[in-house]
Design a protein that fits this description.
heterodimer, A: mainly alpha, 3 helices, elongated, B: mainly alpha, two-stranded antiparallel sheet, 2 strands
Chain lengths: 112, 499
């Protein structure tokens, strides 16, 4: 098993874990964290793709394009997370709940 | 890049709204008249210029900054992209003319604060939509999708109610999850083929598990954003809870944008490698959406909820394209029909939501049982819903009729009569829920004296959109000619028709 496959499998694993917890957990903060874990999984896969053994472009060394994608992706993820957190704060301030209406009981930190 | 001008128009179509989004935030009220009246006209002029360039020169590839792929990002300008740009200008123009009056007369206070944010966000949304329609790079498309989601979410919250915050949050987290699906697909595609450019990817795709996984991830992500049944549940609260001009933008344009991407990916990339059942499955989901959305619309107790569920149903029609286009003989008919349907739905649904906003303001609420006789107060707004509704139902002569007719023809001619049956059933159900509203609206009112003077700024834009949704049928041949420029249609007819 090369370093490339290890990273790629790790990335897919993170993505799957994030997805599971996004679906399974009702608490909004944990949903937002789960999204960030999913995002980290995608970024890991992209970084693995850039590995010299695997580089899709024929140039020697590390493929820079996936790195550029990850940087852009991080910017998008940061702004999206900020917006989600701001909305969650406002929702919590207005309702005192940290779960969306149909998702489960309003008590803090309840899993499922 | 064969004409400098067409490329320039394309760049300005994205750049100008983006600049104005910043300008609107900084300058506030001072540039408001420019935003409301002048910019939509300028944008319309540029889209016209682009269409002329397209008719003269055929489809264009524009390399931004002169960088060529694989490093640079390209824009692809063809008939479908310009048709979407054109319908965006029409809807945006109507919304820009309508919004100042809506926010000024809105019941809730703090409307000044709201208007302050409405303009930058609307222009950001416009820039994101135009960039999405023009991009031909799968990663660039991801960025535009995210811009679109973030802009839409904040616009929904402008309604100021707790319900709208909840709806926006649900939309946001689901939208982000969908984007990550899409991004994972992009990563896998890049891993296999080493390029993000759709034109380069197009010819290379192989039938292997990695490509299938990438394709499924990307399509599923986009289906969530398009609110295809059964992933539609976020849409009705979000679209019904938003302020009326925002609902119009979301229902008419934002969901169409992600459908446009499904269309692009399917016909430019995935169709040759997709297994046949995939198309049938998408069609089946579409059929379920048509029926389920209509049933929920029949049961809705609020006008805007009714219109939002109608969007769920009408989006279902768009997905009938995938099974219908698998029969080569009728593929082109189905393709043109669905796009014509999508364009006229955008116009009609924007008209519906804008008119509903006016009705809601007059009645101070939009519970259907409180709207008895509201037609007497707002005859022009009600006429707008009538024109738009006729197109939604698909009665001749309207754009909706032309689209549905072509779908019916495609269904019958390819022997897939069950899809044709769905089209007919959906039309009947649409008539059912719309007549439910109209019957209430034109019923004799208890207090007939409350007739308000016509508010032209709020009633003329939806009326004109309704007229446009009808008139599009008379332009159908021209629209079809435009759509065929550079269309990904080698089968069933000549791919590129000389205008």
């Amino acid at each position: 098993m090369t370093l490339f496959t290890l990273y790629a499998i790790g990335g897919v694993g993170l993505f799957a874990m994030g997805l599971f917890s996004f679906v399974a957990v009702a608490h909004l903060l944990r949903k937002i964290l789960a999204l960030n874990v999913m995002g980290a999984g995608v970024f890991m896969v992209l970084i693995a793709i850039a590995h010299p053994e695997r580089a899709a472009t024929q140039a020697t060394g590390v493929d820079p394009v996936p790195h550029a994608l990850v940087l852009t992706g991080i910017v998008v993820a940061v702004s999206a997370t900020a917006l989600a957190l701001a909305l969650t704060c406002r929702y919590h301030a207005e309702t005192g709940r940290a779960t969306l209406p149909e998702d489960g009981p309003g008590n803090e930190g309840s899993g499922r | 890049m064969n004409t400098p001008f067409a490329g320039l128009w394309a760049v300005l179509l994205v750049g100008l709204p983006l600049l104005l989004a910043v300008g609107a935030y900084v300058a506030g009220r001072r540039i408001r008249p420019i935003l409301v009246w002048i910019v939509p006209l300028v944008m319309a002029g540029m889209v016209t210029g682009l269409i002329h360039g397209l008719i003269d020169q055929g489809p264009l590839h524009y390399e931004i900054g002169g960088w060529t792929p694989p490093l640079g990002i390209t824009w692809h300008i063809d008939g479908l992209a310009t048709a979407m740009l054109a319908v965006t200008v029409l809807v945006m123009g109507a919304v820009c003319a309508y919004a100042p009056s809506y926010f000024a007369g809105s019941i809730k206070t703090a409307s000044a604060e709201k208007t302050k944010l409405f303009w930058p966000l609307t222009y950001l949304l416009w820039a994101a939509l135009n960039a999405l329609f023009l991009s031909a790079d799968v990663f660039n498309l991801y960025v535009t999708l995210e811009l679109l989601t973030l802009g839409s979410v904040v616009l929904i919250v402008l309604a100021g109610t707790t319900d709208s915050v909840a709806a926006a949050l649900r939309y946001l987290v689901l939208g982000l999850m969908a984007s990550l699906f899409y991004l994972m697909g992009v990563a896998l595609l890049y891993a296999s083929y080493g390029t993000l450019d759709m034109a380069t990817l197009g010819g290379q795709l192989q039938q292997d598990p990695l490509t299938w996984t990438a394709a499924s991830l990307m399509i599923v992500g986009l289906l969530i954003k398009t609110a295809l049944f059964p992933m539609h549940f976020w849409l009705p609260p979000a679209h019904a809870g938003a302020p009326a001009p925002v609902s119009a933008l979301l229902s008419a344009l934002v969901v169409k944008a992600s459908f446009y991407l499904v269309l692009r990916l399917w016909f430019d990339l995935f169709r040759p490698v997709a297994p046949a059942p995939a198309a049938q499955f998408l069609g089946a989901l579409g059929a379920c959406a048509v029926l389920w959305g209509a049933i929920q619309a029949l049961r809705a107790d609020r006008l805007k909820t009714l219109i939002a569920y109608s969007t769920v149903a009408q989006l279902g029609y768009l997905f009938l394209l995938f099974p219908l286009s698998s029969a080569p003989a009728v593929a082109k008919t189905a393709w043109l029909g669905v796009i014509l349907f999508a364009l006229s739905h955008a116009l009609a649904k924007a008209a519906m939501f804008l008119a509903a906003g006016r009705i809601q303001q007059l009645a101070h609420e939009d519970r259907l049982d409180r709207l008895t006789g509201i037609g007497q107060c707002a005859p022009l707004a009600l006429s707008a819903t009538a024109l738009a509704g006729v197109s939604l139902i698909g009665l001749p002569p309207t754009g909706g009729f032309a689209g549905k007719w072509m779908l019916l023809v495609a269904g019958v001619e390819s022997g897939q009569w069950w899809w044709a049956l769905v089209v007919v059933m959906g039309g009947l159900l649409t008539a059912g829920y719309l007549f439910r509203f109209w019957a209430i609206a034109i019923a004799a009112s208890e207090h007939p004296s409350q007739r308000a003077p016509v508010n032209w700024r709020m009633e003329l834009p939806p009326f004109m959109l309704g007229v446009a949704a009808v008139l599009i049928v008379f332009l159908a041949t021209h629209v079809a000619q435009l759509l065929e420029i550079g269309a990904a249609f080698p089968i069933g007819g000549s791919g590129e028709v000389a205008p």
